[in-house]
Design goal:
Strand content: 15-25%
Strand order of the largest sheet: 14-13-12-11-10-9-22-23
Shape: globular
Number of helices: 27
Number of domains: 5
């Protein structure tokens, strides 16, 4: 009976104290100064007392715990002292307007937009001087700034002068304040020559990949230099869904490849062995500058270096102390990493590599053909990372991916070639972009294969099993993982001895965890389907065999075509756009191009006008005239009968476009649904009035929760509807924080069963009344 558990670690004396310091630091990030001082004094004093009792068992480890805790908590106090200098906290609480001098310490990123509010440009700044209310303070503290599109032009390392309104950050955040800037940035000092050189390399790489397939053009800069500006949003969604998001940006695995490449190059040129680590570290420093020395990149560099140590046969004993030292150094460098999911995932992935890569790699190698037997450790690395990171990912998304491990295993051989060839392309682009473009094609091929694997895996039906969320769900998965790892060999032996029973157990588990009542999609007898189109709405009402009424379409290329194709829709009797925001109407052209549409229904309020004109042009191209609907209209299309409850009037409060949403009370072969678009509290009050004025109150089966579950819900309306099922169409990890905890709590108190597309994928409604059922396709 072979044992594939990790061998006993060589030295955990620093790793264990590092973990204790990590937990303590995370708990005390927002603690008052007196408590920080007390913890530092107690830890240091306790370490000194224990160190004197050297004969006591474990005294050295306990003393080291005290020293490391005192060090990291002292770092928290020091960082907070620097950040809290001057009167910034008080001014932020008062939302004062001030003039700021700051250094740009991140690339600008667009957030929001395409929906209920205009997009903004977000950039991280290191505030050096603040003048407000007649006083000037000198500081060195991070803030998060939000501006208009003119801020897209700022570059990392520039110093800027800006006028803005301060807002307080959340306690424990890694920034001290939020700044809503006014006007464009005024650059006072350009970035250093080193930073400008790095920007030239980055720009050259972006130019070099122009013309290669879109997915590859986005992944190559992302993997090589952390530049995700060219990555298609739907590819990011697919990679996140199958736990491959670490391959869309700089991660520890990329750093390991870079270090291995530098070390191998040193061997090729005959550099003495003692000088190779120095050259590798210099190369790593250059890579960090190229990828931007932001906390995530510094973390990846540290963990990648530890990973290289861990898989090196002659340095394996140093790997665990190196990991412990990396944790402590990173927490001292940036204590706010203690609460970062990225830091936790990176650390656990590295620990998994150290524990399992060698023994699991040897076990996998025994089953591989002779010529590729040495690939065992390389294949074991993503498996070990997935096993270790699984419980943490439950906190981010309450589901267990069934395709994450196979997808990462399939993509692993292509990460190295993409990274190495991408770096070569970037360096050549400094000299000649046309020559670099030729070199970009060999780099694009493995990158395209990585993207293709992600997309294929994301499209696999039932690719995830719903799982309890929060800490209980994470603890449950951790316990199951521990049992599987520790008892793996014995379980495998038992399975070989009783194969029939194992097959029966597997079939039982599959039957219990299948997200729908059918092994295929669509599930037979579906009446309505809420399509998973990310941060948007798209609902399909079955009006007949192969026919449907479609309510909203999501954003462009967000999945409405795939959803309709899976449902076998051949004819669309009516396409209803509740309002003209892009996340509801952006996919209209795809629907009109892909299916014969008999009728196009729209709201009367053309806001935003630009998107309304886009819909008009798409309709005209298909010889359709949009028909305006409003409160009181009756609609009938095959098995779908509907009453329009809103809008009753144009509302100027809140979001004009959202409150102009068409609200539909639909009966689909007996199943009653209320579809509320993006209405906010003002329009919801009108819907409540219309509901009370109905001649007959139907027994409502399903409520489509308004505005993706935002906080702007009308609690009285939710209390009056009494629907057993509430469905929320919302995007995974969206920028709006939706669904809002307050909305979920209101629904829970109201007795609704809540289902969400970001957790369960497409949602199908079957039956009505006592036979009402919900089927989940899974993500």
């Amino acid at each position: 009976m072979e044992d594939i558990r990790p061998s006993t670690p060589s030295d955990l004396r620093l790793l264990l104290p590092a973990c204790v310091a990590w937990a303590t630091t995370a708990a005390l990030l927002a603690a008052p100064p007196w408590l920080l001082a007390a913890v530092v004094a107690t830890s240091a004093g306790g370490a000194l007392l224990v160190a004197r009792r050297r004969s006591a068992r474990g005294a050295a480890t306990v003393a080291l715990c005290g020293v490391v805790v005192a060090l990291t908590v002292g770092a928290v106090a020091g960082h907070r002292g620097l950040r809290g200098a001057g009167s910034l906290d008080e001014l932020a609480d008062q939302r004062a307007v001030g003039r700021l001098q700051a250094e740009v310490v991140s690339d600008p990123r667009t957030v929001g937009g395409g929906s209920e509010r205009a997009s903004k440009t977000m950039v991280r700044l290191r505030l050096t001087s603040l003048t407000a209310r007649g006083a000037t303070s000198q500081l060195s503290t991070p803030v998060l700034a939000f501006g208009d599109d003119r801020w897209k032009a700022v570059r990392w390392g520039q110093q800027v002068d800006v006028l803005g309104r301060l807002q307080p950050a959340q306690p424990g955040d890694d920034v001290t304040a939020i700044v809503q800037v006014r006007g464009p940035p005024r650059v006072t000092v350009e970035a250093s020559a080193v930073v400008q050189g790095a920007e030239r390399v980055r720009a050259g790489l972006r130019d070099a990949v122009a013309g290669v397939p879109e997915d590859a053009a986005g992944l190559v800069p992302g993997l090589v230099i952390g530049d995700t500006s060219l990555t298609p949003p739907d590819l990011v969604t697919a990679m996140t869904a199958v736990q491959m998001s670490h391959l869309s940006a700089v991660s520890g695995s990329n750093v390991s490849v870079v270090l291995a490449a530098f070390t191998g190059l040193c061997g090729v040129v005959g550099l003495p062995r003692r000088l190779r680590p120095v050259v590798a570290l210099v190369g790593l420093a250059g890579f960090v500058v190229l990828a931007r020395p932001e906390p995530s990149v510094v973390r990846a560099a540290a963990m990648g270096a530890v990973g290289v140590i861990g898989i090196s046969a002659n340095r394996h004993r140093a790997a665990f102390p190196a990991l412990g030292a990396a944790i402590v150094v990173l927490l001292c460098y940036d204590p706010w990493l203690a609460r970062s999911y990225g830091f936790a995932l990176s650390t656990l992935a590295t620990l998994g590599l150290l524990l399992f890569a060698t023994p699991w790699g040897e076990a996998i190698g025994r089953f591989l053909p002779g010529p590729i037997r040495s690939w065992g450790p390389a294949l074991a690395i993503p498996l070990a990372a997935q096993v270790m990171c699984g419980p943490v990912t439950i906190l981010l998304q309450p589901s267990v991916s069934l395709v994450g491990v196979p997808a990462n295993l399939a993509a692993a051989p292509f990460v190295g070639p993409t990274t190495v060839l991408g770096i070569a392309t970037a360096l050549v682009a400094v000299v000649s972009v046309p020559v670099a473009h030729l070199l970009a094609w060999p780099a694009a091929l493995p990158a395209w294969l990585i993207a293709r694997i992600a997309r294929l895996a994301a499209d696999v039906p039932h690719n995830a099993v719903p799982w309890p969320g929060g800490p209980p769900g994470a603890a449950l998965l951790a316990a199951i993982t521990l049992v599987a790892v520790v008892g793996g060999p014995r379980i495998a032996w038992w399975g070989r001895a009783r194969p029939v029973l194992v097959v029966a157990l597997v079939l039982l588990v599959v039957a219990l965890t299948m997200p729908t009542t059918s092994a295929t999609w669509p599930v037979a007898g579906w009446r309505a389907v809420v399509c998973d189109v990310g941060q948007g709405d798209a609902i399909v009402l079955r009006s007949g065999e192969g026919r449907a009424v479609v309510v909203d379409t999501g954003t462009p290329r967000s999945g409405i075509r795939d959803c309709l194709g899976r449902l076998g829709i051949r004819q669309i009797d009516a396409l209803l756009l509740t309002h003209f925001h892009n996340d509801h109407s952006g996919g209209a052209e795809e629907v009109l191009d892909g299916w014969p549409v008999s009728t196009l229904l729209v709201t009367a309020t053309r806001d935003p006008e630009a998107q309304a004109r886009i819909v008009d042009r798409a309709a005209a191209a298909h010889h359709l005239t949009p028909v305006v609907v409003g409160a009181g209209d009756e609609l009938r299309f095959g098995e779908v009968q509907a009453t329009v409850l809103g809008p009753r009037r144009q509302i100027r409060e809140g979001s004009v476009a959202n409150n102009a949403s068409v609200v539909l009370l639909a009966d689909v072969a007996g199943t009653t649904l209320l579809l509320t678009g993006d209405i906010e509290t003002e329009a919801a009050a009108d819907v409540r009035t219309a509901w009370t004025q109905l001649a007959r109150h139907p027994d409502l089966d399903v409520l489509k929760v308004a505005h993706h579950g935002s906080a702007k819900q009308d609690q009285r309306l939710l209390a009056e509807l009494h629907a057993p099922l509430a469905l929320i169409s919302v995007g995974l990890d969206n920028d709006y924080g939706q669904p809002a905890p307050s909305a979920l709590e209101t629904l829970r108190r109201g007795g609704y069963q809540v289902a969400r597309t970001d957790e369960s994928g497409d949602l199908a409604v079957l039956g009505h009344g006592p036979t009402l059922r919900l089927a989940r396709r899974g993500r």
